[in-house]
Structures are given as C-alpha cells and as structure tokens.
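Lecture 7 notes: from sequence to structure.

We start with a single chain of 162 residues. Read the sequence below before looking at the structure.
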Amino acid sequence: MELRNATSQDQTFNVGISLANGAKQYPHAVKYTLTLPSGQVLHLEPVEPGFIAGRVDPLIASLPVGAAFSFEVDLRKYAAPKEKIWKINFPPGSYTLQAQFTGRAVSMAEANLDFKGVALMRYWLAPCPVHPLFLRLRLRRRWYPSADGSWLLLWNWCETHP
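Now the structure, written as tokens:
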C-alpha cells in the first residue's frame, strides 16, 4: 500500500500506532474491503497486535510534496469480525481489494506526556481517493531449500492483474 502526497503542500498523516518506542509499527488507519470470488464482501480488521502492555504512540508520516509512504499488506494477518470470519481462506479466483484512508488528528488525550507536541501538528483530515485493486489468485506449488539442507513444499499465491 502506498500513500502519496499528490497535493501542492507538505502533509502529515496519522497512519496508525507505534509500540515499544517505535520497535513495532502498525499502519492500521487504512481500512480494507475484500470481495471474494463468491461475491461475499469482507470488512477486514488487523489481528495484530493482539494485546498491548506498554507504550502506544501514533505512527505519523510527514510527506513533502510528491513523497510517498509505503508498507506491505499481508492479508493473512487480517480477519473479518463483522462477518464472523476469523481466518480468511483464499481459494483460487478473482478478488477485489479496496482500501480507504480517512485522515484523523492525534488528540491531546492520545498523546503521551512526553509527546504532547504531536497533537499540535496539522494532519490530513479528509478521505484519500483510492482505486480498487483487482487480483486473480491461483495457487502454485514450489519447493524451497530449508536450513538443514532438506526441501520444503510450500503453496504460494500467484498474483496477476487483469
């Protein structure tokens, strides 16, 4: 996923949360909707982090004009709790993935005591235009060498864009 500043001014985005003083980062501000080959629509929610016991800071991306912030999206790390689906299976077929980012500020209440200045920043507060991604997935078998010299048979996704 990529957020690109296509405006004529520098922008600041609140894209999620950061844990353990930045050791783990979760760009959860982007919401995903996945349409399965059956036509069923899933509203995806991340399954990580499952439990937080410590410091939580906002994950902020400050983007000059033309700059981009990108991150990997692993759909295996998402569930669809609204549809009561906790592990998503991906049979071969055509999928549509839609993403929606709506900007949100960091409030004084959310900012940690030593990080209050982050609440004073000017954040992007509008929805970002996002184009749907159409995927055709088919399973493909591959053999991979393991650390002990043996071979592992793994099933991979093969993504093709129509």
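The CA atoms of residues 38 and 44 lie 16 Å apart. Keep this in mind for problem set 3.
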